[in-house]
């Protein structure tokens, strides 16, 4: 059995969505990261930085969203959510799955916090460069790596949705709105949202 450690409406949402897309059985385990005393120390045995998400697949623990996405799409290839090694689209998949966490997420977080920094001093560069890259890619293709929905879209669309609608730190451009419309209409996203909504009643609410 696969255990999925998550917090509703957090950075674990994309992996939640991916698990629903894969259609595999899994046991959701809610971690209340926003509780007053902080994340319980016991959780460090699963995730060394006490962050969500994490998975435990029959004793194999995987942390970090990009790694979890690569692991799951390789172990469950029948869902067709990633081009596998040997496929010409593999390079785009790897580039974008890593970009989501190493460029998109920190650029957005720094922008949302109004942090002023020199773009060349940080590996993720500037918010404007990141936004221009996203806009170019999503205007050109219906999905992150081309014509087909992939695991990258579970990460990118959930992040863009969070950036626009929760953080309110990204503009809701027509390109982003159309992309979110294509991705979020998927039944797997709806199922993940339903579970997150139900689980949210039992955890400390989000605050900014
Ligand atoms: N590098 C991690 C980061 C995940 C992350 O930032 N998770 C946040 C959720 S929004 C978290 O668990 N925060 C709890 C905390 O820092 O106490 C990944 O990509 O999986």
What this model shows, in words?
There is one protein chain. By secondary structure, this protein is α+β, with helices and mostly antiparallel strands. It folds into 2 domains: 2-80 and 189-200, 3-Layer(aba) Sandwich (Glutaredoxin); 90-186, Up-down Bundle (Glutathione S-transferase Yfyf (Class Pi), Chain A, domain 2), CATH 1.20.1050. Helices cover 48% and strands 9% of the residues. It is built from 7 helices and 4 strands; from the N terminus they run βαβββαααααα. The chain has helices at 13-22, 65-75, 90-112, 127-140, 151-166, 174-184, 187-200, and strands spanning 2-6, 26-30, 54-57, 60-63. A 4-stranded mixed β-sheet has the order 2-1-3-4, covered by helices on one side. The protein is globular, with a radius of gyration of 17 Å. The protein starts with a strand and ends in an 8-residue tail after the last helix. The relative contact order is 0.16. The model has no long low-confidence stretch (mean pLDDT 97). Bound molecules: glutathione (GSH). Glutathione is lined by residues 7, 10-11, 33, 39, 50-53, 64-65, 101.
Question: What does the secondary structure layout of this molecule look like, with pairings?
Answer:
Layout: E1 2-6, H1 13-22, E2 26-30, E3 54-57, E4 60-63, H2 65-75, H3 90-112, H4 127-140, H5 151-166, H6 174-184, H7 187-200
Parallel strand pairs: 1-2
Antiparallel strand pairs: 1-3, 3-4
Bound molecules: glutathione (GSH).
């Amino acid at each position: 059995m696969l255990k999925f450690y998550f917090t509703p409406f957090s950075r674990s949402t994309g992996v939640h969505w991916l698990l629903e897309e894969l259609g595999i059985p899994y046991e959701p385990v809610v971690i209340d990261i926003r509780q007053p005393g902080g994340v319980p120390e016991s959780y460090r045995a699963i995730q060394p930085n006490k962050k969500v998400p994490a998975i435990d697949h029959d004793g194999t623990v995987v942390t970090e969203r990009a790694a979890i996405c690569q692991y799951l799409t390789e172990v469950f290839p029948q869902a067709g959510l990633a081009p596998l090694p040997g496929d010409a689209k593999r390079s785009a998949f790897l580039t974008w799955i890593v970009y989501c966490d190493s460029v998109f997420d920190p650029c957005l977080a720094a922008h949302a916090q109004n942090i002023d920094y020199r773009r060349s001093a940080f590996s993720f560069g500037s918010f404007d460069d990141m936004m221009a890259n996203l806009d170019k890619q999503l205007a050109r293709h219906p999905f992150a790596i081309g014509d087909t929905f992939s695991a990258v879209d579970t990460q990118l669309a959930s992040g863009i949705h969070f950036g626009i609608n929760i953080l309110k730190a990204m503009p809701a451009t027509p390109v982003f709105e159309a992309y979110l419309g294509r991705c979020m209409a998927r039944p797997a996203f709806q199922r993940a949202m339903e579970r997150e909504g139900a689980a949210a009643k039992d955890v400390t609410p989000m605050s900014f």
